[in-house]
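Appendix B. Chain record.
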Amino acid sequence: METIQELLVSFSNLQLVNHGNNTQMTSSEHEKRCSEILREGFQADTLDKKKFRSFVMDNGYQVCSHSEDSLNRSCVPSIPIINNSLNLTTNMNYIIDQPSGSQNYPDIMLIRLDEQNNLHLAYIECKQSIPKFNNNPPKMNINCIYICGKDLYNGFLLTTQEWQDRKNEYIEKYYALVQEFTTDDMLIVPYKVIELNWIQGSGPQCFIDRSEQNVPLITECFSRFLN
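Structure tokens predicted for this chain:
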């Protein structure tokens, strides 16, 4: 791939309906097609998710756990590699589908080992054109890319710090309320749904107000994976 613009064009040409009929592409079909576009665009090989998890653990990290330090929670841009147990080729791109499992963030990870043994990481989530985030609202992080239908959004722009602070305050109060009303004969199972007020074809208002930053931030995230 020569430019990030070529990647954006590839996604803009993504067909969201199944060939031969007029039904909407399912979430799993959309995710598979997004992975194919990324794999082709970045000339990436595929890594087995279980082997990738073991590799990450060999280097003192975890892909998915309840810890805020796990990769799928912290979304750090890179980690140091002291044990290349997978024999990754330097400056080659790799794709891992569902690295945290089918029900956990992210849907896809893009990785690349540089000559200083730093493993660069990008976290990619696939959503429908009007996305539903349920229990995993967007992460305000440059390293997180959201593919909604055929449009790419940098996660840093989908919310604001004020939004994230309100979300965290709500969750804290919500769990306190659950604990207050849970008794020996009343079990309250927490289930929270936090969504964005998404304007079709445009995104949330905070994104619209800063939309000129989207391509530069996507470029900043993905430029680490260009030859």
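Further analysis of this model is presented in Appendix C.
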